[in-house]
């Protein structure tokens, strides 16, 4: 479904991604683990067209999107939930959800149905629908960010550190939603520093170190890998 080949990204003269190769099959959850500064966010943002690529190609559902603009990539079926959430803090919860559907061409009635579905997934967002998004708690903001991404009806979601800063209860809730999305056929590329959690929910994983993929395999293989255990699983 997604094929990233020889991705090279620079920030001025900093070579942030050095020939990254990643594939994601339809229906999979694939995770990308790595330390701070390894290039995880850069990988997601260059796939979604936010950061320009110096070299390499990104193919999505057979279509070359290497040079496609970010908003067109969203329209093509890829949604990103950015690190730090980036919701519109000055708008209500409901308006944030509506904006998530800006690339969707459908009747208002059907878009309202999508909003109802988001409220079913995250009942707290219904309770808070008229509240300014900036006044939500961190966990609620993460739910809103995911809800907004789902509003674009993506086939692939790029999720950047959904557990960051959240209490165990919220983390569990967010990961339940990720599992539900997978059951509904949505494909997910997940970035997580909580490698235990990421490997427990994903089918396959890649380990990124200073801009290079150093290991890949099924999540079960990586969970049992000695060097992965030592470096990322606290064992
Ligand atoms: N806008 C930028 N300008 C210059 N350098 C940047 C920029 N964004 C990221 N970098 C650098 O690129 C490297 C990769 O950063 P990136 O944010 O992709 O890491 P990450 O794996 O997501 O880390 P974290 O776990 O801390 O979120 C880092 O060394 C970072 O300092
Ligand atoms: Mg990051």
Automatic annotation (TrEMBL):
Q: Does DNA damage count among this protein's keywords?
A: no
Keywords of the record, alphabetical order, are: Amino-acid transport, ATP-binding, Nucleotide-binding, Transport
Q: Which InterPro entries does UniProt cross-reference here?
A: AAA+_ATPase (IPR003593), ABC_branched_ATPase_LivF/BraG (IPR030660), ABC_transporter-like_ATP-bd (IPR003439), ABC_transporter-like_CS (IPR017871), BCAA_Transport_ATP-bd_LivF (IPR052156), P-loop_NTPase (IPR027417)
Q: What is the lineage of its organism?
A: Bacteria, Bacillati, Bacillota, Tissierellia, Tissierellales
Question: Matching PROSITE patterns, A to Z?
Answer: ABC_TRANSPORTER_1, ABC_TRANSPORTER_2
Which stretch is the leader sequence? Answer: none
Q: GO MF terms on file?
A: ATP binding; ATP hydrolysis activity; branched-chain amino acid transmembrane transporter activity
| Residue ranges occupied by any ABC transporter domain in the UniProt entry | 2-235
Q: What is this protein called?
A: ABC transporter ATP-binding protein
Q: Which family does it belong to?
A: Belongs to the ABC transporter superfamily.
Q: A GO term (biological process) for this protein?
A: L-amino acid transport
């Amino acid at each position: 479904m997604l094929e990233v080949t020889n991705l090279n990204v620079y920030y001025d003269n900093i070579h942030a991604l050095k020939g990254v190769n990643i594939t994601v099959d339809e229906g999979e959850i694939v995770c990308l683990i790595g330390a701070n500064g390894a290039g995880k966010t850069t990988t997601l943002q260059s796939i979604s067209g936010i950061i320009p690529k110096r070299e390499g190609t990104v193919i999505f559902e057979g279509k070359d999107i290497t040079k496609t603009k970010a908003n067109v990539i969203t329209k093509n079926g890829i949604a990103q939930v950015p690190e730090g959430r980036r919701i519109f803090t000055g708008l209500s919860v409901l308006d944030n959800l509506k904006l998530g559907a800006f690339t969707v061409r459908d009747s208002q009635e059907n878009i309202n149905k999508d909003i109802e579905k988001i409220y079913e997934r995250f009942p707290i967002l219904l309770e808070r629908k008229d509240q300014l998004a900036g006044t939500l708690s961190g966990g609620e903001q993460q739910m809103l960010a995911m809800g907004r991404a789902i509003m674009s009806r993506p086939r692939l979601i790029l999720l950047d550190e959904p557990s960051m800063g959240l209490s165990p209860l919220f983390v569990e809730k967010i990961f339940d939603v990720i599992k539900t999305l997978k059951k509904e056929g949505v494909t997910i590329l997940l970035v997580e520093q909580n490698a235990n959690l990421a490997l427990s929910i994903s089918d396959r994983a890649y380990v990124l170190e200073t801009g290079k993929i150093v290991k890949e395999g099924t999540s079960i293989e990586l969970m049992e890998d000695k060097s992965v255990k030592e470096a990322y699983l606290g064992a």
